[in-house]
Amino acid sequence: MSRAVHLAFATAIGAMCMLPAPASGVGFADPTPAPSGGQAMTVPKGTVVFAVGAATGGKADGRPSLGYRVNPGEKVVDSLIIYNLGEKSVRLVVYPVDSATSQDGTFNLSLPSDPQRGVGKWTDIDNRTFVLKGGESTIRKFTVSVPAGVIAGDRVGGIVASTVPDVPSLNEAGQAIKIATRVGIRTVVRVAGEVTPALSVSDLTSSFEASLAKPGFGRLTLTWSLQNTGNVRMGALGRVDVAGALGPGSSRDLEKIEQILPGDVVNQTVVIDDMPASLRLSSTVNVTPVALEADVTAPQDLTSTTSTWAVSWVLVAAVSLVLGLLIALVKGLRGRRRRGAHAEHMGGEELPPSGQPLRVGAE
């Protein structure tokens, strides 16, 4: 059997993950608001599925994330609603954590066992552990207290609801593991003060690897680091332009980076195959910062340039061989012409036997 549950608030369906989780933290995405008229969702019997959303006045309010502007030394009180979408009871724990930008630009939440320095440390939640019966919901109040003297800017994290596994399971290797389902809602705290949006590009390098199967072409690899050096969240658009000294270049638009948190670094790599071996390749990375708040002005575009040799040694060897053959052929033709000219100059006379002097003039 299955049941249809109508949702009228922001929800996120948890993905299965093993404990302990990777050091990079828990994968996270903003919940998607349901239509105002409610969204029908079918939950298979026995499946553990639950949702987390923002709440006001004891009811879900449809906010896709939690955002606050707070002065240092002040606090804000808000509420969450947690809904059990399945039929069976589930034991849950709710906790706040900080977030970080992973090396590939995705948004991650840290583990509750990791040191918390921002949102995860400032947030206090009432009654963190509880049992929620099938089809029921519960409200949990929380307080975000910003310490006095904290510097201005964005602090980002999340509030996570996780199942509490009681009995370990065995994986294929026979190891005992605990499996938990986790969902969360993003939390952004803007500490009041001067806003300084800034990004920087550094450590740009390029390399060219000639193709053996396709002489005259090869693979160009570019790597660089993009860092948020300001104090507010920033997105980024990018493009790579490549110019060849002896041939055509190339341009490529980069995938948008949705968010880089203050102080975080995203390492980027672009690989361009079938690039002509144009002796010298000059590559320019162009980055356009994207403001994520209406009251934040994005800084100017960034550019960084590097160059590398792009030589196809297979092609060089083939050209050298052809040139060598042509030179040998030209030398051979010139030698034949000289011998023919010498024979004509002698008038066809026979030369004296070896050892006898050549007589010139009348006797």
Question: Notable features of this structure?
Answer:
mainly beta; Immunoglobulin-like; 5-stranded antiparallel β-sheet; 2 helices; 23 strands; disordered N terminus
User: Going by CATH, what is the homologous superfamily of the largest domain?
Assistant: Immunoglobulins
Overall mean pLDDT score? 81
Spans with pLDDT under 50 lasting ≥5 residues? 1-40
Beta-strand portion reads over 45%
Name given to the CATH architecture of the largest domain: Sandwich
Q: Separation of termini?
A: 133 Å
Helix amount = 10-25%
Shape: elongated
Largest sheet: 9 strands, mixed
What is the structural class?
mainly beta
- SSE pattern: EEEEEEEEEEHEEEEEEEEEEEEEH
In CATH, what is the class of the largest domain?
A: Mainly Beta
Present the secondary structure layout.
Elements: E1 2-7, E2 15-19, E3 26-27, E4 39-44, E5 50-56, E6 59-60, E7 66-70, E8 75-84, E9 90-101, E10 107-109, H1 119-122, E11 123-125, E12 129-132, E13 137-145, E14 153-163, E15 169-170, E16 176-191, E17 199-210, E18 217-228, E19 234-244, E20 250-260, E21 265-276, E22 279-291, E23 302-310, H2 313-345
Parallel strand pairs: 7-16
Antiparallel strand pairs: 1-4, 2-16, 3-10, 5-6, 5-8, 8-13, 9-10, 9-12, 9-14, 11-13, 14-16, 15-16, 17-18, 18-21, 19-20, 19-22, 22-23
Entry summary:
Keywords: Membrane, Transmembrane, Transmembrane helix. With 363 residues, the chain is mainly beta.
How would you characterize this protein structure?
The protein has 363 residues and is mainly beta. It has two domains: 2-191, Sandwich (Immunoglobulin-like); 199-312, Immunoglobulin-like (Sandwich). Helix content is 10%, strand content 50%. The chain has two helices and 23 strands. It has helices at 119-122, 313-345, and strands at residues 2-7, 15-19, 26-27, 39-44, 50-56, 59-60, 66-70, 75-84, 90-101, 107-109, 123-125, 129-132, 137-145, 153-163, 169-170, 176-191, 199-210, 217-228, 234-244, 250-260, 265-276, 279-291, 302-310. The strands form five sheets. Strands 2, 3, 7, 9, 10, 12, 14, 15 and 16 form a nine-stranded mixed β-sheet that branches. A five-stranded antiparallel β-sheet has the order 6-5-8-13-11. A hairpin with a 5-residue loop joins strand 9 and strand 10. The longest helix is centred in the C-terminal third of the chain and has 33 residues, at 313-345. The protein is elongated. 28% of the residues are buried. Mean pLDDT is 81; it is low at 1-40. The chain crosses the membrane at residues 309-330. Keywords: Membrane, Transmembrane, Transmembrane helix. Residues 341-363 are annotated as: Disordered.
